[in-house]
Specification:
By secondary structure, the protein is of the alpha+beta class. It has helices at 12-18, 42-67, 71-76, 84-92, 125-141, 155-166, 181-196, 234-239, 267-274; strands at residues 2-5, 25-26, 29-30, 36-40, 99-105, 113-118, 172-175, 201-203, 210-211, 217-218, 227-230, 252-254, 284-286, 299-303, 313-315, 321-324, 334-338, 344-345, 348-357, 360-369, 379-381, 383-385. The chain contains 9 helices and 22 strands. Strands 5, 6, 18, 19, 20 and 21 form a 6-stranded antiparallel sheet that branches. A 5-stranded antiparallel sheet has the order 13-17-14-15-16. The longest helix is centred in the N-terminal third of the chain and has 26 residues, at 42-67.
């Protein structure tokens, strides 16, 4: 993996606007950063990223199969008992899943290590699937990268194919919260993919979902909602006023209820418990358990429902705080994970996000930050394959 500087397209703002990329600048700071790019070889992609992603995903599915049969595991994951049986039913009924993103640390020496699995509401999808592909085509045509360069990116094609498989002839609603431009952009992109697959789609903000007299969820025109993709965490749904309605299974949700086992950082200690010393895992343990690292080694504290780096804290071997991020998860249960520093290029640390669609590894998106903790504002850097 090599990072090098490249020339920024002089009309980048115009290109982004034309493609609907309305959040390439966040809070007056660069989010989409094409002043640099990462170069991989095909062997690195296939052996170091694609292969372990596929294997880890299957291991995660194994954890789901174990957890639905073990109340102690569901308790450790802090999933409300009210939903245990319906989560198990969702799994046994093979409720379909769409996508997810594994976050890896890889220094180039040794195997990638899993930091977490964003299995329910992963963002940076539009940038990974679409806009970095547009960048690659422009970069090839202008000679910024080799003309025979490729990109590890079958995300959009796989999304469209998956939506086609999920087409039941019913309207598929797409939903997110209001006042979240990045989430709205992600949902708009996914809706477009579904339309390309021939689905009848409708958009509805989470806040505008209503409740009919018979207990069915409805849209603003009092039409019953039967299928819905939501960029809204499952654990939030379970805590909402309408949460108990999930037990009735009247709607098909993307992502499905069984994903609540994977969209939970408690997955990390369970993976280590069932697959100890796997080369792509870091030691991880639940709060209150015996630490699985030697004295003097660094570690990370993670709230199990943390998102975008919220309330994550890094400690050195003497239990001193190295870095931390504020957030809304300070009162959530936590897990601990052995510290594996992200590789540093210049003044930035690099995280690899490996995408999964329909249980297949399909592409990557790369994020950079001057902090060791990757956040929602961390810069997105394009990549390509050469050699």
């Amino acid at each position: 993996m090599l990072r090098h500087n490249v020339r920024v397209r002089p009309n980048l703002d115009h290109i982004a606007r034309d493609h609907g990329f309305n959040f390439h600048i966040i809070d007056n700071e660069i989010y989409w950063d094409e002043s640099r790019a990462y170069r991989f070889t095909l062997r690195q992609i296939e052996e170091q990223i694609e292969k372990p992603t596929a294997e880890l995903h299957q291991m995660c599915l194994d954890v789901v199969a174990r957890a639905i049969r073990d109340d102690a595991l569901l308790t450790q994951l802090a999933i409300p008992p009210l939903y245990w049986d319906v989560i198990a039913e969702s799994w046994r009924n093979n409720d379909p899943s769409l996508y997810g993103r594994m976050d890896f640390v890889w220094t180039g020496n040794g195997p990638v290590k899993l930091l977490e699995y964003n299995a329910d509401t992963p963002t940076s999808l539009y940038e990974s699937a679409y806009f970095q592909w547009v960048w690659m085509e422009d970069a090839r045509n202008s000679g910024l990268i080799p003309r025979d360069a490729d990109q590890y990116n079958a995300i959009q094609d796989k999304l469209i194919a998956r939506f086609g498989e999920l087409n039941q002839g019913l309207p598929l609603y797409f939903s997110c919260c209001k006042d979240t431009e990045e989430d709205r952009g992600t949902v708009l992109y996914l809706e477009d993919c579904a339309q390309q697959a021939g689905l009848d789609t409708r958009f509805l903000y989470i806040e505008d979902i209503g409740l009919g007299f018979d207990g069915h969820l409805t849209d603003l025109h009092n039409r019953v909602i039967q299928q819905v993709f939501k960029l809204y965490p499952l654990e939030w749904m379970m805590r909402d006023e309408y949460g108990p309605l999930l037990r009735k299974r009247r709607e098909q949700w993307l992502e499905p209820l069984w994903k609540s086992i994977l969209s939970n950082k408690g997955l990390l200690p369970l993976l280590w418990r069932f697959f100890p010393h796997h080369p792509n895992l870091l030691p991880a343990w639940f709060d209150g358990d015996k630490p699985l690292i030697d004295a003097g080694e660094g570690y990370v504290r993670k709230p199990i429902f943390s998102r975008e780096g919220g309330n994550i804290t890094l400690f050195d071997g003497q239990h001193n705080v190295v870095d931390s991020v504020d957030g809304d998860y300070a009162h959530e249960p936590v897990i601990y994970q052995a510290f594996q520093p992200l590789p540093r290029f210049g003044d930035s640390y690099t995280l690899i996000g490996s995408w999964i669609v329909d249980d297949e590894a399909v592409g990557v998106g790369i994020r950079e930050d001057m902090s060791l903790i990757t956040k929602d504002t961390s810069r997105f850097i394009p990549h390509y394959i050469a050699g």
